[in-house]
Amino acid sequence: MATIHKSPWLLHYDGSSCNGCDIEVLACTTPVYDVERFGVINTGNPMHADIFLITGGINSQNEAVVKQIYEQMPQPKVVIAVGTCACTGGIFKECYNIKGGADTVIPVDIYVPGCAARPESIIDGVVKGVALFKEKAEALAASGRA
Amino acid sequence: METLVTALICFPFLWAILPAVIHNSKRRAFTVYLGCAIVMVLSVFTAIQWYLAGGQTLDFRLPYQQVFGEIFLWGDIFLMCFITYLAYKHHRLIIAFLSIISTVVPTILEKFGPKLGIVPTMRFDWLTFIMVLIIGVVGSLIGIYAVGYMHGFHIHHHKEVTDRRSFFLSMIFVFFGAMFGLVTSANLLGLYFFWEITSVTSFLLIGYTRTDEAINNSFKALWMNLLGGCGLAVAISVGIVCFHTANLYDLIYAGQTSGKAGDMLCLLPIAMLAFAALTKSAQFPFSGWLLGAMVAPTPSSALLHSATMVKAGVYMLIRLSPAMADNYVGNMVALIGGFTFVAASCFAITVSDGKKVLAYSTISNLGLIVACTGCGYEETIWAAVFLVIFHAVSKSMLFQCVGAIETTIGSRDVEEMQGLMSIFPKLAFILMVGIAGMFLAPFGMLISKWAALKAFIDTSSVYVSTLMVLFICFGSATTMFYWTKWMSKILGASKREKSRDLTKKNEYISMFFHAFMMIALILGFPWLSEHVLKPLSNDMFGIVKQVISYENMIIMIVLLCGVFVIPFVNYLMTKNQKGKQVITYMGGANAGDNFNFVSATGDPKEMEISNFYMEELMGEKKLFTPAILISSFILIVYLIIVVGGALQRWFRLELFWQSST
Amino acid sequence: MVQTRIILAILYIVLSPFVIGLLDGFDRKISARMQGRKGPSVFQPFYDIKKLFEKEFLTANKMQLFLIRSYLCFIVLSGIIFFAGFDLLLVIFSLSTAAMFLILASTATHSPFASQGTSRELVQIMACEPMELLVAVGFYLATSTFTVSDIVAGSSVANIRYLPGFFVGFVFILTIKFRKSPFDISTSHHAHQEVIKGVTSEMVGKEYALVTIAEWYENAILLGIVGLFFVSNNPLTFIGAVIAILAVWFLEILIDNTSARVKWQLMLKLAWGVTIVAAGMNLFLLEIIRG
Questions:
Q1: Could you give the ipTM of this predicted complex?
Q2: CB distance B583–A47 less than 8 Å?
């Protein structure tokens, strides 16, 4: 029985966000929302992370960075785009340097809309992501066996 | 035996002439190899011969003792004239003064003082046995290494330096001869002669390149060692005048029996000999000369730091240690040693020049040995002798290795050795074994620290005991810091291109032989303890004591095997581990590899990783002068106590004689 | 007696990951409650370890894995020496050998964060080692032996009576050893840290799990030493020792939750200062009493 869904560790990456969503992400770890009760830890290291949580859109500066960090995360992993900008590019979409949402660079599993996304919905997204792990882990195990 | 020992002393002196007169590079190299081989074989043969004969302490006079006596006398005078001439030439008259005083006084006393009885002048016992082996084997390996190294030194790297290789190589042989003489002499006059030869030879070796720095440092070495020589001269004078003997062992016996009762007069020669030994083994405040000695080409540093020179001082202290147990001299030596152990290891943290780290680590390690001898218990002598053996082998290996690395990568800075393992695995391996031999758990240091801590807790003086325990605890922490730091640099990836290894074959032969010896020593350590160290303790203290319990011996062997076996087994088990290769984490800004990152301008920039050096906390600039002051203070206070006590006793004796006549 | 020693060593090998892991779980729970949160399950550390073993194995340098395994083996070996009642000094020497493997594993990657963490880790080891050695010295002064089993069997009263200064010093460095704030400068047992994850930055999946388990084994030894201060040849004192261990453990959590991270310079000075003052004074007094 895989236990990954019981200890999903987060890596929070700030793309070109206005910092609104970032504040809400951090709010999740505060006593009011206490995301740690699900075993979630906000780690700063892709090598240790299971969930890649992106806020803000992708610009030409951070495109390579996001790709690289994604590569450095071990399987199974889930990508969550938090906030409208990370989902679609949001109000920055037409800017000269913005490519769009996180899914323009890496495959995104869960979209959490909102401007800014509320902590409740972020936690909701994380819990949905956690549910995805079961499938991913089983798929990984199956491919490993095959 | 007499003949063998005589041959051992005389042969290197005579052979030294050959490299000096042969100027053809190939033929000279051949003579040096041959000479080194003969020295090695001769020393091992002598040692084995003695061992097989039962390992009894031998006291004897040299054949033609009269002739040798004359040679020593005129040799002393010749050295004095030579030093005076050099001092005059370089305007350092204080050196001439030191030399004249220390030579003239004992000579006059010998000629015109009280007649000394005909007593044995040489002694061969277990300590001599060990020292002869160290000098013979490690020393001659350095000799072999020197041939290849000096060739590279002149032909490839330092074309500006005048080629005086003949001189250099013959000096190495003179050094061997002097060292053999030093460790076998029981007569202080003979010992003084050899002592002075090592001082002068090291002076000449340090000044080899004749740059201003080299000349300055060589004079520094000379005056410090001559000051030690003065101490020796005082000891001889006191011996002749007060005890009518110039025999080292008589003086030690006197110190041992009446020193405990607080007879300062008997302690005075011991204190003076110890003082001389402290200068020679480069303890604070006399550490400057050994640090300065680094300007010399690597083989001479290796020679001075490992098998010879500094070991002469330590040898002397081990000899004296029965007379130093729980008295003022012992306390002085222990405190100086302990202080040096901590201070030098702190300085070793703050420097990045590989040779300088080695120099400080030598001083620090010798500090621990000196502290052990100052304690003067069986356990500590056991520890001290072990340290001497391990230190000689691993230090010689490390110096040779750093020399070879410098030749190959063009730098001896520790920071430049990043990832040496991936480009020059052979050199890196030797470096690892050497470093491991210096400090890692089951090797020399651990056993010694274990025994030393135990002995110091039991030392009778409360202040000394407390201070020494603290010194050892802190010193071992700082020691670990600088070695681990260096070791961690060697592993990992390197950004250097693989290049040709410029190390000569004979250099490798010498280094691998050292590595082999190191491992043999580690594995043979219980045997060594049982068959060499025990009789040694019996020799010196008349008791055989199981220093380390059977149980602990087993644990140490387990740990020892662990250090080799555990990583090796784990290596085999994980060798075929499949894993996706990723680049290291740099905030996602790696420019495609582990060495460059994308800078703010968008261009790749090289990433530099450096160790901690803590210069602002314990740097040389900040703490060197205080360290010198503190150690000088300890030394002076204790010497005043001993000399004052001795004078008082002397006057009382005078009064006693006057009133009785 | 030999059987007891063997049993204790086996119990150490088998039980300490569970006991210390559970303590770690409670640690997180209590910390959360102190901060007004609910906190994760007390079994959370075990879930984390299991998950780490199941993750894909990525590596920045292949040498890391075998060095980390050697680290674990050496820690366990030191633990066996301690719990089977052998020489206390050898335990400490063996622990510092183990630490060296961790350091080599971490620098082998040439990563900026790991290297920074390693340098700080070295400073931490340097800050703690004198005190660890002094604890052994203290026990020797009090009982005339370094051997753990003899220390226990030979003392009629708990040695804390003679060694209060050593105990204070040891508890002080425990904060460093447990990687608790304010001294969590090389790596923290909390997730996020200024140098990412310090020494463990480049350790992925099972590598990180092995390091965590090794730390549990090490903590078991350290808590064991805390207990050693309180035991005597009276078996009832073992209960007292357990209480003392729990008290120290709670104190560390309290310190962790009420302090901010210091710089390494201050840590070194503080640790050495406390060592010299507390342990040094105690040492001096004991020496005088022994005369």
A1: 0.94
A2: no
Answer whether C263 touches B (CB < 8 Å): no
Check C55 against A4: CB less than 8 A apart: yes
Give A39→chain B minimum CA distance, Å.
Answer: 24
Rounded distance between C-alpha atoms, residue A59 and residue A105, angstroms: 10
Verify whether the Cβ–Cβ distance A36 to C192 is below 8 Å: no
> C222 vs chain A: nearest CA distance in angstroms?
27
Q: What residues of chain A lie within 8 A of the CB of B588, using their CB? A: 46, 62, 64-66, 68-69, 72
Give the per-residue pLDDT at B1.
77
CA distance readout (Å), B338 to A78, B435, B452, C170 = 58, 21, 11, 24
Give one word for C144, left, alpha or beta, with left for phi > 0 and alpha for psi -120 to 50: left
Averaged pLDDT, C25-45: 91
pLDDT tier for residue A2 given thresholds of 50, 70 and 90: low
pLDDT digits (tens, 9 = 90+) for C202-256: 888 888 999 999 999 999 999 999 999 999 888 889 999 999 999 999 999 999 9
pLDDT one-digit tens code per residue, B585-633: 888 888 878 888 888 888 888 888 888 888 888 888 888 899 999 999 9
Q: B590, A47: Cβ pair inside 8 Å?
A: no
DSSP-derived secondary structure for chain C: -HHHHHHHHHHHHHHHHHHHHHHHHHHHHHHHHHTT-----TTHHHHHHHHHHHS--EES-THHHHHHHHHHHHHHHHHHHHHTT-BHHHHHHHHHHHHHHHHHHHHTT--HHHHHHHHHHHHHHHHHHHHHHHHHHHHHHHHS--BHHHHHHH-SS-GGGT-HHHHHHHHHHHHHHTT-TTS--S--SSS-BTTBTGGGTT--THHHHHHHHHHHHHHHHHHHHHHHTT--SSTTHHHHHHHHHHHHHHHHHHHHHT--PPPHHHHHHHHHHHIIIIIIHHHHHHHHHH-
**The CATH number of domain A4-141, selected from 3.40.50.12280, 2.40.30.10, 3.40.50.300, 3.30.559.10:** 3.40.50.12280
